[in-house]
Write a structure and sequence with these properties.
mainly alpha; two-stranded parallel sheet; 17 helices; about 5% strand
């Protein structure tokens, strides 16, 4: 008994963990299909287990039935090893995922989940949320019907429909084969109507959950009127009833936790799944009390109760459920993102990343300054010296790039300065030399202006004489443009 208890307790971690995992891996418009893989897989296990149990009990080693435990234990260990080798918490941690797929998943989930593993759980907001309680109640009602099918269909087939154990095993697996198929199909349909914007997420969840509860309820009532003279009709109705509950798994309540609060989907599903296990021990007890003689009339009461619980769960989910991200989940997400940013900044500084970014910014700033210098005529050589040059400087200065000296040039200076770069000293050039050289216009002689003269020469435009200016003169001459004389 103790081993059975710990086996069940350990399995209780699986479903909430799956929900949390898919919150970091499933893009919103693929969420139904991907999450349903887990639920569909559990039905495949039932499909295989029922007939295998029947065969091993009769033909298995070590007395028959013990071989079933050995085999399932070995399968569990193999699965665990494979899980450890292939599964990672998020795309960013997976070493073999392609960059394209990682970027796609992370972009689609931006603003919905946090990259950090530790966030504050808003317990009061979760427990006070109507959509959360819609999930809990609907989950509980779903499990009542499921446990009624799961734990008592073999008994019903044996006692009421009179099937032998080997035939019973295969027929008991048939409903879960349909269950797996409908989970897969309904999850694809749910994502299709959402991606095509035929229905909102809220409407999709309510519709699929309603189909997964109302239809099985009607089929359970129909089964209650079929006796042992129509065994295959009864099996068909049971199989169809179990199969149709797959709509809840593929597009209904089992997807809702990831819709309303992706960061806390595991927490919400853990609460929901805990409450929903109550029918796991109440349903068999109730059925045992209601069917002491295993008659069809007594089983009819069992099916009526299960159908009524299905209907109640469907109505409660329609009234209170939602497919939208809840305000409290969004607020906590923003706070977590802000904390994550602060922690990342601290980590960056600790790792020296901030210093590297500053160096890159300084390099970029230097490149911009060089471009400004080129635009101002300073030259394209990359200076290794420190020069105080304003980009608005419109004067012409020939500065040798090999010159390592510091030259402070006043930009108000409008003269042309040729600096000898063999000189290793610092030269402060006084631009205050604003002497004007006036040439007498009555002078009819030719004046040759020495190009070594670095002064500014203002030529009177009334001067009608011809002035020859040495072309080697690199000085700046200010000339009145109203002057029509030839110089």
């Amino acid at each position: 008994m103790a081993l059975r208890f710990f086996t069940g307790a350990s399995q209780g971690f699986v479903s909430p963990a799956m929900q949390s995992l898919w919150s970091h891996w499933a893009p919103p418009l693929e969420s139904s299909r991907l999450r349903s893989i887990c639920f569909a897989g559990s039905q495949v296990g039932k499909v295989l287990t029922y007939p295998m149990t029947a065969l091993l009990c009769e033909y298995g080693f070590d007395g028959g039935w013990p071989s079933l435990f050995y085999l399932q234990g070995i399968v569990g260990v193999v699965w665990f090893v494979g899980w450890c080798l292939t599964v990672y918490d998020s795309p960013s941690q997976h070493p073999r995922i392609s960059a394209r797929e990682r970027d796609y998943i992370e972009t689609s989930l931006a603003g919905m989940v946090s990259g950090r593993s530790q966030t504050k759980t808003p317990w009061l907001s979760i427990l006070g949320s109507g959509p959360v309680w819609a999930i809990i109640i609907a989950h509980m009602c779903c499990n009542w019907g499921e446990y009624t099918f799961l734990t008592n269909i073999p008994t019903y087939m044996k006692e009421v429909l009179k099937f032998d154990i080997k035939q019973n095993g295969f027929l008991s697996a048939l409903p879960y084969l349909g269950f797996w198929l409908l989970i897969t199909v309904s999850s694809w349909l749910a994502d299709l109507v959402r991606s095509k914007q035929l229905l909102s997420t809220t409407a999709t969840r309510k519709l699929f959950n309603s189909v997964g509860k109302f239809v099985p309820a009607l089929l359970l009532i129909a089964v209650s009127f079929v006796d042992c003279t129509q065994p295959y009709l009864a099996v068909s109705l049971l199989a169809l009833g179990v199969s149709m509950t797959g709509f809840q798994y593929g597009g209904g309540l089992y997807m809702s936790a990831g819709d309303i609060a992706p960061m806390y989907a595991g927490v919400i599903y853990g609460i929901s799944n805990t409450v929903a296990t109550i029918p796991g021990f109440l349903s068999p007890l109730a059925i045992g009390l209601l069917t002491p003689d295993q008659t069809q009339e007594q089983w009819r009461q069992v099916f009526y109760i299960a159908a009524a619980i299905y209907v109640f769960g469907a109505i409660f989910f329609i009234v209170f459920s939602s497919g939208d991200l809840q305000t409290w989940a969004k607020q906590e997400m923003q706070e977590a993102a802000s904390l994550e940013l602060k922690v990342d900044l601290l980590d960056s500084e600790a790792c020296g990343v901030a210093k590297q970014e500053m160096q890159e910014a300084a390099s970029l700033e230097l490149k911009v300054d060089l471009l400004d210098s080129e635009a101002c005529g300073v030259g394209t050589d990359t200076p290794r010296d420190r020069r105080h040059i304003e980009p608005c400087d419109t004067d012409i200065r020939s500065i040798e790039a090999s010159d390592r000296n510091t030259h402070d040039i006043d930009l108000t200076d409008t003269n042309t300065h040729n600096i000898d770069h063999s000189d290793t000293n610092t030269h402060d050039i006084d631009p205050s030399d604003t002497n004007t050289h006036d040439i007498d216009p009555s002078d009819t002689n030719t004046h040759n202006i020495d190009s070594s003269d670095t002064k500014t020469h203002i030529i009177d435009p009334s001067d009608t004489n011809t002035h020859d200016i040495d072309p080697s003169d690199t000085n700046a001459h200010n000339r009145d443009h109203s002057d029509t004389n030839t110089h």
